[in-house]
Amino acid sequence: xxxxxxxxxxxxxxxxxxxxxxxxxxxxxxxxxxxxxxxxxxxxxxxxxxxxxxxxxxxxxxxxxxxxxxxxxxxxxxxxxxxxxxxxxxxxxxxxxxxxxxxxxxxxxxxxxxxxxxxxxxxxxxxxxxxxxxxxxxxxxxxxxxxxxxxxxxxxxxxxxxxxxxxxxxxxxxxx
Length: 176
Prior knowledge:
Elements: H1 5-16, H2 20-30, H3 37-53, H4 60-81, H5 87-92, H6 102-120, H7 124-135, H8 140-147, H9 151-175
Helix pairs in contact: 3-4, 3-9, 6-9, 7-9, 8-9
């Protein structure tokens, strides 16, 4: 189910964004050990957009909260399955001597090049927000201050950027 860009923006502004502060407070109270609610909220927005595209979203608020809960639980499951070790410990591990083969390296390089192209194809403001958030690790608040825009605008632009990058990847994979 495809929606014009203006419809997506209107829907996000009217149906999703008004719940952001409540969602953040709920996530902090429900999952106090999570350190980065910004990433969790962005992931929830991306999942919500994908679900909307496939026609599964009947109530944006309910779906958003359920999606955020599932994304948080995914983080906890991932942490249980793959415990994080300090980088020095990983580098000292004998497994770190295993180098990826040429095919893996080429595939990784292709994906990085495609990601750079996807980010370059974003509108200027959207690109700035995505680069500051995803590549430089700035918080929404820091980005808002740096660019002189509201945190809500940062959230909307980051979500739009992630969605457009995913679409870019999807389009390129179909053509290959």
